[in-house]
Design a protein that fits this description.
By secondary structure, the protein is α/β, with parallel strands linked by helices. About 35% of the residues lie in helices and about 15% in strands.
Length: about 325
């Protein structure tokens, strides 16, 4: 394949998983003949008759059905139309799916696909990053792929795992991000990736913020600063080994995320640095998130609300000056 974008990689992962395993089926709102809100399932309804199913507008019902199907040996993949809407199904996801294996010893292999993150004009109900919410609960694995290759390989892995997986796919990457291949670097799903090697400071981040961090690192390189960028790939569990290994090389940490700041993934990363890597630090660990307000509709306000390459660069310059 000469070039493939993020949403095409997700569609191909779904296609290949269904082709390989007759127990895999898709369930969600308007994912059948319509192909889904973002066309992630376009063409699959015709290719796999009876296995791409439209559901009522009830996230609680679709999550409960998925758990029941998983208990019976199937591997459902649920598309929440937007990550924000998944909160309607919280009871089934966190109280039932997350605890099912602990309570019964029976696996619950459900994948919840959550179109996550903000885009210009989406506003507060269609833009949230929910990974920290789900990472809070034992029993749930939370994927946050930032590359086309990971969108494919990590979705294939998520479907094969015997535990419920929250698969956060960033909407901003769907058609903007393109790569030459879906072949990844072979990292296990629970390992972070060093997206850029550096020696002066580390940025630990995930999803669309990986690309903002790389742009900031490019800009700072013009002044001689070498910034290391770590792509977490997985928000739960966090790869402590890669985070601490990067800190050992750089001595400075900026934890970066698009989600709201309070109680987020960035707070966990800073906690790891402060409690497990304190002796590695040459400066207090810092974090940068979106503002602690509802997400604006207006595109310029939305850009001012979230971290950008420019605000990341400014945060790194403050960290480097310490």
């Amino acid at each position: 394949m000469s070039e493939i974008n993020y949403i095409d990689a997700i569609r191909k992962a779904l296609h290949d998983a269904m082709a390989d395993d007759p127990g895999v089926f898709l369930y969600g709102q308007d994912i059948g003949a319509f192909g889904g809100a973002f066309k992630a399932t376009k063409g699959l309804y015709e290719t796999f008759p009876g296995r791409v199913l439209d559901c009522p507008i009830s996230e609680d019902a679709m999550s409960g059905l998925a758990l029941g199907a998983a208990i019976e040996g199937m591997r459902p993949v649920i598309e929440m139309q937007f990550a924000d809407f998944s909160t309607v199904g919280l009871n089934q996801i966190i109280n039932n799916c997350a605890t099912h294996f602990y309570r019964t010893g029976i696996p619950a292999p459900v994948v919840f696909r959550l179109p996550s993150g903000g885009t210009p004009g989406s506003g507060p109900f269609h833009s949230q990053s929910m990974e920290a919410l789900y990472a809070h609960y034992p029993g749930l694995i939370v994927f946050t792929p930032a590359t086309v290759a990971d969108a494919y390989s990590m979705l294939r892995e998520a479907i094969a795992i015997d535990d419920p997986v929250i698969f956060c796919e960033h909407k901003l990457l769907y058609r903007w991000l393109k790569e030459d291949s879906i072949r990844g670097d072979g990292l296990p799903w629970h390992r972070a990736r060093v997206a850029r090697v550096g020696k002066h400071a580390t940025v630990v981040t995930h999803a669309a913020m990986v690309h903002e961090a790389l742009r900031a690192a490019d800009q700072l390189s013009e002044d001689g600063w070498e910034i290391e960028v770590v792509d977490l790939r997985c928000a739960k569990p966090l790869d402590r080994t890669t985070i601490l290994g990067s800190l050992a090389r750089t001595g400075r940490l900026l934890a970066l995320g698009e989600a709201f700041p309070f109680g987020g993934v960035t707070a966990e990363v800073v906690s790891i640095a402060a409690t497990e890597g304190f002796e590695l630090l040459d400066a207090p660990p810092q974090r940068l998130n979106s503002r602690d307000t509802p997400i604006p509709y207006q595109p310029d306000l939305w850009r001012a609300h979230r971290p950008t390459a420019e605000s990341i660069q400014a945060a790194l310059r403050r960290l480097l000056a310490f």
